[in-house]
Design goal:
- It contains 4 helices and 9 strands.
- By secondary structure, the protein is an alpha+beta fold.
- It has one domain: RNA polymerase II/Efflux pump adaptor protein, barrel-sandwich hybrid domain (OB fold (Dihydrolipoamide Acetyltransferase, E2P)).
- The strands form 2 sheets. Strands 1-2-3-9-8-5 form a 6-stranded antiparallel sheet. It has a 3-stranded antiparallel sheet with strand order 4-6-7.
- The longest helix is centred in the C-terminal third of the chain and has 8 residues.
- It is globular.
- The model has no long low-confidence stretch (mean pLDDT 96).
Length: 126
């Protein structure tokens, strides 16, 4: 199970990578393995400002559909267009090519509420 130490995590299995006031967000290796083969990612919130824990999209796998939750409040400034044509990249490379959105963070204090890699490992029992 790949859980990069430089990222932060949520209890809902999203990861977040911080670069100044921009955050790149996706789902964890654990989440994609639990979902199974991902066939579609729907994100129609680009340009919107959403609060922490609001739903920013959905991931559709063969067996289920799962909501995607904002790790922090912010404006969604970009969606990974590559996952439209290749949703399997979320399975194959969840921390790289399978990223989902980029967000301009509006409340940096929320970052302290996120889980470290060790805390996330404890959450999922690894």
């Amino acid at each position: 199970m790949n859980i990069p130490s430089e990222l932060k995590y949520t209890k809902d299995h999203e990861w977040i990578k911080i670069d100044g006031d921009i955050a790149t967000i996706g789902i964890t290796d654990f989440a994609q393995s639990e979902l199974g083969d991902i066939v579609y990612v729907e994100i129609e919130t680009v340009g919107e400002t959403l609060a922490q824990e609001e739903v920013f999209g959905t991931v559709e796998a063969v067996k289920t559909v799962s909501d995607l939750f904002m790790p922090v409040s912010g404006e969604i400034i970009e969606m990974n267009k590559d996952i439209d044509g290749a949703p399997e990249s979320v399975n194959n490379d969840p921390y790289g090519k399978g990223w989902m959105i980029k967000v301009k963070i509006t409340d940096a204090s929320q970052l302290s509420e996120l889980l470290s890699a060790d805390a996330y490992k404890a959450l999922i029992g690894h």
